[in-house]
Specification:
single chain, globular, 36% helix, alpha/beta, 10 helices, 251 residues, Rossmann fold
């Protein structure tokens, strides 16, 4: 398995509060890694370090290293725009831009300088197909993305991320605002996308983590307690804290 991220002794502080404590783990290419743990345990904070979204918050201090493709230190030697092109993000609540479905998907490529209409048409169609949305919207590409259902809006946001041709897609509880049917569609989509992309997902649902992920990391109070194959985490956890959380004794 090829290493996509190598995280070494990562600490993160919001002013005087330490949100992450000495986190080290290896994230593998074209695998789905689920980050689980109770609210406030640091899983979303950790996810956001992988494309430097925490840079947008004042008084954040980070120590340690995050290496992309095992050798590129994303905090020392990488332009943040390049990083966010290679490491896309899908948020908890669908957040389409207030523009057409087509323009939502074409937004990133246009900002990268692609102006050719045929090329943009191809990118939009391919991204919507990969996001399993094309058949539902191909006849209404000029309508507002805000008119889609919640589940469709989230798949549009995934298409928008895919259009940038990232290597990694970060997902921060992407189904928590969706109904069960829309959630199932997103989960099926993740299963298809991992053939091409590395996916790291924060989920509050242990059932979802068990269904869709290859690897699972369990966080508690800002510390990485355990990281292993998902089946092992759920059936033979090495740490008592992991077992207690999975069996519902807290959280």
């Amino acid at each position: 398995m090829k290493v996509k991220f190598n995280v070494q002794n990562l600490n993160l502080f919001y002013k005087d509060f330490q949100a992450l404590h000495d986190v080290s783990l290896t994230l593998y290419e074209k695998k789905v890694t689920a980050l689980i743990g109770p609210s406030g345990c640091g899983k979303s904070t950790f996810l956001r370090t992988l494309n430097r979204m925490n840079d947008l918050i004042d008084d954040v201090k980070i120590t340690g290293k995050i290496l992309l493709d095992a050798d590129q230190d994303i905090y020392q030697k990488m332009d943040v725009i390049e990083l966010r092109t290679r490491v896309g993000m899908v948020f908890q609540k669908p957040n389409p831009f207030p523009m057409s479905i087509y323009d939502n998907v074409a937004y990133g490529p246009r900002h990268q300088g692609i102006k050719d209409r045929m090329k943009l048409d191809f990118i939009v169609e391919e991204a919507l197909k990969q996001a399993a949305l094309w058949e539902e919207v191909k006849d209404k590409l000029r309508t507002s993305g805000l008119q889609l259902s919640g589940g469709q809006q989230q798949r549009l946001c995934i298409a928008r991320a895919i259009a940038m041709e990232p290597e990694v897609i970060l997902m921060d509880e992407p189904t928590s605002a969706l109904d069960p049917i829309a959630t199932q569609k997103i989960e099926q989509l993740i299963g298809h996308l991992k053939k091409k992309y590395t996916i790291i997902i924060v989920t509050h649902s242990m059932q979802q983590a068990a269904r869709i992920s290859d690897k699972t990391a369990f966080f508690l109070m800002g510390k990485l307690i355990e990281f292993d194959d998902t089946k092992k985490i759920f059936h033979q956890p090495a740490k008592k804290e992991t077992e207690d959380y999975i069996k519902g004794r807290f959280g």
